[in-house]
């Protein structure tokens, strides 16, 4: 597997400020030619369901980034859903604590919607993963909050960090929980004409 530029000269633009997404792409040998983080209002609509919300936000991010011809854009949105409740990135430690107490001892869903845009055309899909969090004690929550690892993470935790100790079970896509489901992302990039090198494709 290599990060050779595609023969057709297409340039890949990562529409994301998330270092996780850049690292996940690197894992499959894909190196964006440029990074252009979108700046949009991520407030859910009243009554909006989590999956529809993640899809709308990923597509909105992809429309918020300026593109030249010959460029392919990749954007994503990761949302934690407890039933119909949408948990985005906590504003502060108090909100992260609230999220963690709600998730404690229960099963929730992590949805990552991925949107690939080329010109006016968007290829998108959502990937859902069921996640069980063990019952958390107050000291466990407080020790985790003190690490600061919850910052910028949907639902107030990151499975790839210390909170991995809180997650005994998932069913779905680990890379989707971290922010970019690699198998589906590779499929969308190829559908948009961005060739991936390597024999995994
Ligand atoms: C649940 C969970 C989320 N996350 C992260 C992935 C996303 O970066 C973040 C959710 O926020 P997003 O709004 O999806 O993305 P972002 O603000 O980090 O970056 P951008 O909008 O520029 O693409 O939560 C983890 O890293 N691990 C986890 O286990």
TrEMBL record:
<dbReference type="GO" id="GO:0036221">
    <property type="term" value="F:UTP diphosphatase activity"/>
</dbReference>
<feature type="active site" description="Proton acceptor">
    <location>
        <position position="77"/>
    </location>
</feature>
<feature type="site" description="Important for substrate specificity">
    <location>
        <position position="160"/>
    </location>
</feature>
<feature type="site" description="Important for substrate specificity">
    <location>
        <position position="78"/>
    </location>
</feature>
<dbReference type="InterPro" id="IPR029001">
    <property type="entry name" value="ITPase-like_fam"/>
</dbReference>
<dbReference type="Pfam" id="PF02545">
    <property type="entry name" value="Maf"/>
</dbReference>
<keyword id="KW-0378">Hydrolase</keyword>
<dbReference type="GO" id="GO:0009117">
    <property type="term" value="P:nucleotide metabolic process"/>
</dbReference>
<dbReference type="InterPro" id="IPR003697">
    <property type="entry name" value="Maf-like"/>
</dbReference>
<protein>
    <recommendedName>
        <fullName>dTTP/UTP pyrophosphatase</fullName>
        <ecNumber>3.6.1.9</ecNumber>
    </recommendedName>
</protein>
<dbReference type="GO" id="GO:0036218">
    <property type="term" value="F:dTTP diphosphatase activity"/>
</dbReference>
<feature type="site" description="Important for substrate specificity">
    <location>
        <position position="20"/>
    </location>
</feature>
<comment type="function">
    <text>Nucleoside triphosphate pyrophosphatase that hydrolyzes dTTP and UTP. May have a dual role in cell division arrest and in preventing the incorporation of modified nucleotides into cellular nucleic acids.</text>
</comment>
<dbReference type="GO" id="GO:0005737">
    <property type="term" value="C:cytoplasm"/>
</dbReference>
<keyword id="KW-0963">Cytoplasm</keyword>
<comment type="similarity">
    <text>Belongs to the Maf family. YhdE subfamily.</text>
</comment>
<keyword id="KW-0546">Nucleotide metabolism</keyword>
